[in-house]
Amino acid sequence: MATKLPGETYRGNTLHIPLSEDGQIALYVWPLRILSIRGEGCGGPTLGVEVGNEEVIRFDCHATPGGHWHGGGYDRLQTPRASHRDFPAEVQSVADQVEWALAHIQHEGKALLEEAQHGEAATRLNPAMVQNALNAVRAHLVQQGDLRSQAIAEKRITM
What we know:
Elements: E1 9-11, E2 15-18, E3 25-37, E4 40-51, E5 54-60, E6 68-70, H1 74-77, H2 80-83, E7 84-86, H3 94-115, H4 119-124, H5 127-144, H6 147-153
Antiparallel strand pairs: 1-3, 2-3, 3-4, 4-5, 5-6, 6-7
Helix pairs in contact: 3-5
């Protein structure tokens, strides 16, 4: 599971689902991750793909502004800025960012693992397990409820 950083707040139950037969490739979701950026709070669901104990891809679905994702080997690059990528301009809402991230994992997962120097893991990615995991994430987020709106009402998220 990805490292939780000091100063971040997490709400909801984390889900962790294997994407390979051996369980070494997995998808996780934190239903709400709240962080402070320059004194303002932002947050939303965070999804990621890990290989073993290494976080490789992360999607921070915090709406726009603030929403972004990390590719190329999140942990290996050792600084979030080195792996930072913006969502496409038309992908602005939290729901759209989550759906874009899930589709990106489904359609580009192998290429993203290869780009992050995990070619062997890319060959073990199981398409049926990926599809099941994506459906499980969608259902889990619905079951967890609208934690982001609650955090906005509490003024924990301001942007």
